Amino acid sequence: MNLKSILFGTAAGLMAASGALAADLPGEAAPAAIDYVKVCDAYGAGFFYIPGTETCLKFSGRVRASATYTNNGGDLNTATDKLASRVDARVQFDARTASDIGTVRSFFEIGLDDSSRNILANQAFIQVGYVTVGRHDEVADGDGLYGINDSTWGPGDYTATGASVLVDKLGGGFYIGAGIYGNTNALTRPTLWESGQQAGVQGSAIIGITGQPWGSFDVSGIYRSYDHDDNDVFGAKATVNLKVADKLKLRAWAAYLDGGDGANLNNIAGYKAENITDLALAASYQVTDPLAVYAGVRYQIVDAAVSSNADDFVYGNLGVDYQLAPGLNLQGEVDYGAQDDWNQLAVVTRLVRVW
Predict the structure, then answer these.
(1) Residue pair 37/51 in contact by the 8 Å Cβ criterion
(2) Which residues form the signal peptide (predicted)?
(3) Domain locations in the chain as residue ranges
(4) pTM of the model
(5) Residue 12 has pLDDT above 90, yes or no
(6) What is the pLDDT of residues 294-320, one digit of tens each?
(7) What stretch of H or E contains 162?
(8) Is CATH 1.20.1250.20 the classification given to domain 130-313?
(9) Rounded distance, CA 276 to CA 304, Å?
(10) Buried/exposed code over 212-240 (b: 16+ C-beta within 10 A; e: otherwise)
């Protein structure tokens, strides 16, 4: 017997023995199934199923860093001109579950602003079907101009704590909503000029149409109760958003505010007034896929001034928005406001990261 035969015979014997031993061993346990995170496409992009549940969750957020130069009075004056920087951030958690009574949603937003150095719950609410309870955006249309200092209308913080109902499946793009809120936050307006007072109860309502080839239209109203006397504020506003062309859109609105004795109604510059008529027109044009330009003008007619210097007010902005990368935009804007004996110019640059 030669060496080759011996080697082949030994190998065959070992294989046979291994097979016999394997047959006598107990069966190995199957590996445990791994519950991988799965994409949830029922509510749009970014949602995933929480493992072991039917609840879909989404994380999102935004960070903004800006620098602003403000020129007061129209003259270069180091005593009055200002250069300021600001950073703010927010993180959002959105959880949704389908149920027999409609989609059950819980939403929570944490915000950080370096000007106050506080971490706040900007929004926190529970939504079941058409009903929303908690701290959330009012149903009233708060849209102003396009851009950084977009300048909302009327007094009040349009994010408040309360309950609202918004029905958006009336057919044909129509919707209707109303809400009542209790607000203990200072009333602020996100413009260059801010003023604030305390509010008691506030309410809002809206009716409109959206998703049309030509754009959208709505009529909204607000009510702010302070002491249930002549200081309460009422307001109404009509807004139209037009798709003029594929790359051009326009926004126009008109509003009227009745402030009673004027103690709690400020014009855009922060001066007291009993009644204000508010008119605005804005346009935005998408020059290229990453580049958009916009401009807007707003005029406030002060019907009955309480402050001695509460004159009619004009405000305008002109800006550019450029997408550096998906979710990363660089913005620049020039803002100007003026009354009879006063004017202010501001230049703002802002970097925005959204995910």
Answers:
(1) yes
(2) 1-22
(3) 36-129, 130-313
(4) 0.79
(5) no
(6) 999 999 888 766 665 667 889 999 999
(7) strand 159-167
(8) no
(9) 8
(10) eeebbbbebbbbbbbeeeebbbebbbebe
